[in-house]
Amino acid sequence: MNPITEFMESGVIELYVMGAASPEEVIAVEAMAEAYPEVKQEIEQTRLAMEYYAQAHAVKPRRTVKTLLLATVDYLERMKKGELPESPPILTPESKISDYEKWLKKEDAVYNEDADGLYAKIIGYTPKYTTAILWVKDRSEEEVHHDEYERFLILEGTCTFTTGGEKHDLAPGDYFAIPLHTPHQVIVTSDTPCKAILQRLSID
């Protein structure tokens, strides 16, 4: 076999493009690319093929994941600036909106119009549970939880929770708990975003 062809079929070019080649392999690939145009072309074609594959198989993260990640970053930044951690009450069927008035009255407890229809503001964190104010403008994606309980207390607006094929219409003051291992989705039925206290509790 032609030494150049053998080099191109060795797999080292793929490792080089992925950034997984050893320092010695990097030197060898770059030297071969400098000396042989066909090797340089093979590197470019491999790079384009991998980019195409990555784009074709890319998985867009759920809006909920993105929303809660941004909310966590915001919460940590607030802690760095001196905000003290707090532990809002655990949501129960007896919970009232007034139980969370302290956090609802804060100046930054407002909906971000730049959000992608879903926005959250974390107001409390412990290793056992996380509490946030949540705004849903239109609907959430369907999701399932296997390792944490999810509870809601509706503050403003109205919405319909679909869990396991059953629909539950909720209004301000209503409490709702999502069963484990159950597909669920919320669809807003009011003209304004549905605002709620969201709490996620570890099953441990």
TrEMBL record:
Pfam families cross-referenced by the UniProt entry? Cupin_2
Q: What is the designated name of this protein? A: Cupin type-2 domain-containing protein
Q: Report the InterPro entries cross-referenced here.
A: Cupin_2, RmlC-like_jellyroll, RmlC_Cupin_sf
Give all residue intervals belonging to the Cupin type-2 domain: 138-197
